[in-house]
Specification:
Largest sheet: 8 strands, mixed
Helix content: 40-55%
Order of helices and strands: EEEHEHEHEHHHHHEHEH
Number of strands: 8
CATH superfamily of the largest domain: Alpha/Beta hydrolase fold, catalytic domain
Number of domains: 2
Shape: globular
Strand order of the largest sheet: 1-2-4-3-5-6-7-8
Number of helices: 10
């Protein structure tokens, strides 16, 4: 499980499989690559090469809180460079929740690199728009305002990430809290741009212009209500919809690993979709 130097940041990644088409599979939220690894291994066993990675500022990858692009746009450009370094382009891109958004951003920013999209648990709607800003940014802004960078390091989220790469703690503690807060507020403002529904961050007109193979698997919680995935399917011409035998739950978030029983079904459908492309 190596690191790659990508745009001045050490990115932690892992690949499964040694032959076949490439798929970059991206975790949701700010979760590490470990969320997708078991699913990625099942796909790789069917004759594909699958990359999973920790985006900068997540997992074991290096932290760097700077940049004029939105954080998710930075992630897309990092992923492009990482895949290019592996001679893995063009490729399929997919993922869950934020991983689905990242995949769509690959199509926006690097269209020539994308053979197709596999989008699980599409995010959208008022509930997600109200929940995610605090989850991603506001809680850490508050921690820095109240207790400086030590307060940030003591949040549950950062504690977990620092166990994966303890060297990131030195970097965090070197930051001026005012600079950290300013960058978080800037990224929050970028995150809040664009529509909230049905697909967060994606204008309907852009979705209508997707001219590549797309497979959509709706979610089943309040952050990833099935109606958002179904709406995305209706907006993207020629897209395919694959609905698991689930019903929407009155739950803020159902973690992707809780879909483990569906991995074989998802693997079969993903593989069928990718093999069907020219």
């Amino acid at each position: 499980m190596p690191f790659a130097s990508i745009r001045s940041v050490q990115i932690f990644y892992e690949t499964f499989g040694d032959h076949g088409p490439w798929l970059a599979l991206n975790s949701g939220g700010r979760n590490s690559h470990a969320e997708m690894a078991p699913f990625a291994m099942q796909i790789a066993e069917q004759g594909f090469r699958v990359l999973v990675h920790d985006r900068r500022n997540t997992g074991a990858s290096q932290m760097l809180f700077e940049g004029k692009d939105g954080e998710e746009e930075i992630w897309a450009d990092d992923l492009y460079e990482l895949m290019q370094s592996l001679n893995a382009l063009p490729a399929y891109f997919g993922g869950s929740s934020a991983g689905a958004r990242l995949s769509m951003l690959m199509r926006r920013r690097h269209p020539e690199s994308v053979k197709g999209l596999l989008l699980m648990r599409v995010t959208g709607g008022a509930f997600a728009a109200g929940r995610l800003p605090n989850m991603y940014y506001l809680q850490f802004i508050k921690a820095a305002q109240e207790n400086g960078m030590e307060g940030v390091c003591q949040t549950d989220w950062y504690k977990e990430r620092l166990t994966l790469n303890p060297s990131n703690r030195d970097y965090l503690m070197s930051l001026d809290p005012k600079d950290f807060i300013a960058q978080q507020e800037y990224w929050l403002s970028k995150f809040l741009q664009g529509p909230r529904s049905p697909v967060m961050g994606m204008e309907n007109a852009e979705l209508a212009q997707f001219n590549l193979p797309v497979l959509i698997v709706p979610g089943n919680d309040r952050t990833h209500a099935s109606e958002n995935g179904i709406a995305a399917h209706q907006l993207i011409p020629g897209s395919e919809l694959f609905q698991l035998p689930t019903t929407d739950q009155d739950s803020d978030l159902i973690a992707f690993p809780l879909w483990k029983e569906f991995y074989p079904l998802l693997t079969e459908r993903f593989v069928e979709f990718m093999r069907a492309q020219p």
